[in-house]
Amino acid sequence: MSGTSDAGTDTREPVSVDDALRLGGGQPGAAAAGLARDHSRSVDRMGVDAAPVGSSCAPPMPAHPEATQARLLDDPLLLGEIAEAVGGPFHVLVPERVTVNVTAFQDALATAGVDGFVYFGKKANKAAAVARACAEAGAGVDVASTGELVAALAQGVRGEDLMVTGPAKSGELLWLAARHRAVIAIDALDELDRLRALEVPARILLRVLPDGSTSRFGLDRAELSAAIDTIEAPITLSGFSFHLGGYDATARAEQAAALVEHCLHARTCGHQAEMISIGGGFGVDYLPASAWSEFQKTLSNNWFHSRPPGDYYPYHFPVPGPAMLTAILSHGDLAVRLRRNGIRLAVEPGRALLDRAGSSVFRVQGVKTRTAQGNPYDILTVDGTSLSLSEQWFDSEYLPDPVLWPARAGAHTPTCVGAATCLESDLVSRRRIPLPRRARVGDLLVYPNTAGYQMDSNESPFHELPLPPKVLLRTEGDRLRWTLDATAR
Q1: Does the global pTM surpass 0.85?
Q2: How far apart (Å, rounded) are the C-alpha atoms in residues 288 and 309?
Q3: Could you give the CA distance from residue 136 to residue 157 in angstroms, rounded to a whole number?
């Protein structure tokens, strides 16, 4: 999700339009073995390797490919059949990819010799299949509401594998979390008082406010000291956590080292203190370095149908996901300190566990032509809204280009994408994208890699339009099979 994050899951550090003109490229992190697909083939299929475009059109921004979804795009029938059966916009999810991503984080912990545990930040995607994939892969789930807790349990996540975060938790959430032996991140002294009043056994972390932070989350030094002094059975102080915005590996490593010291101090006061949680904020690499660099170097206000966005997610991330975790563990010998002191590390990735695990599909309902700086471009109207591609609602824009399906011959056409509501601002893509041909009514636009936050964080049945259901893809022999996620049935 764009904006701030109250749990430890992925947060964003926005890049302003001015900053985007200055940022460098870097090299993308290695993709998970077996799922990488040749980038040139992806470029050829999307038709963005030729035909220069004018200054009123943005450069091509092809997303990194993913094998299962590439097969879906290459299939001449299946995507159209799903669209006909669903009858409106929909999201596609590949649960197998979630398993790959969970395993990559677990491998990073094992390689560093660190006792650790991965919790999926559930707010990043509501699909039941994602929680089920995490449970089957030996991961937990980070929840911040009673609804999320119950939904995770329903998919086989054990109560002891839940991390309960978020501010000012309700009494019901505290009680259920304690009953199921979840780890509860305590954010305030009065929250601790309310938990104590329940008189039930509970495992807790104290959420630390980093020095110099103005965040509304966490306990300052005086509050921490008061909490440590007053915690007693049946409440167990299992350790400490923190919340940081942005994607700085060094800052996370240094704050983690500070949590180790908190654990050692708490042990002198008679507490167990054997765990720290460093939350999320593990970046995702959406775009090749070359595409991101070209975007930054040539960014122009002339690319946009309406005013340009105010900021951007860092869509090329040189050290993403598990590689960022490795960098954190390597900094300042953090892994050594964790091993030496017998401290378990919890991480709570959100979008990083959903990297290349899903796409969003819209049907073209209308096509108009306008001009900009004397150059013609198309405006599409699709059957969904920008509430189903959440980045647009944070004064930003989702940058990876959509794929126009089916593939046909044609001339490159600068195109922006409007949505189905009566709001002028309801634009799925403000910038003029170089589509490989002119779109037709009935074509599908497939926005890649949207499983992390884009599908859920701002969904709304505005105009009484239906929410896009989630369609699950799985490989069965040499065929792709699909079904609806439990949340869509």
Answers
A1: yes
A2: 21
A3: 8
Residue 24 φ/ψ, nearest 5 degrees? -90, 175
Helix pair angle (221-230, 249-268), 10° resolution? 40
* DSSP bridge partners of 90: 361
Query: Regarding beta strands 403-405 and 444-448, do their DSSP bridges make them parallel or antiparallel, or are they unpaired?
Result: antiparallel
- Which ranges of 155-239 would DSSP assign to H, the alpha helix? 171-179, 189-198, 221-230
- Would you call the peptide bond into 406 cis, given omega within 30 degrees of 0 as the criterion? yes
pLDDT tens column, 74-106: 999 999 999 999 999 999 999 999 999 999 999
Model confidence band, residue 27 (pLDDT cutoffs 50, 70, 90): very low
Q: Distance of CA 489 to CAs 6, 363, 462, 471, 485, Å?
A: 30, 21, 20, 10, 7
- Let me know how many helices (H) and strands (E) the chain has, helices first: 14, 19
* 347 backbone φψ class: left, alpha, beta (φ>0; ψ -120 to 50): beta
What are 146-152's contacts with CB under 8 Å, separation 24+? Answer: 146/170, 146/172, 146/173, 146/176, 148/122, 148/123, 149/173, 149/176, 149/177, 149/180, 149/182, 150/176, 151/122, 151/126, 152/122
Which residues, including other chains, have CB under 8 Å from residue 246's CB and lie 6 or more apart? 11, 12, 13, 281
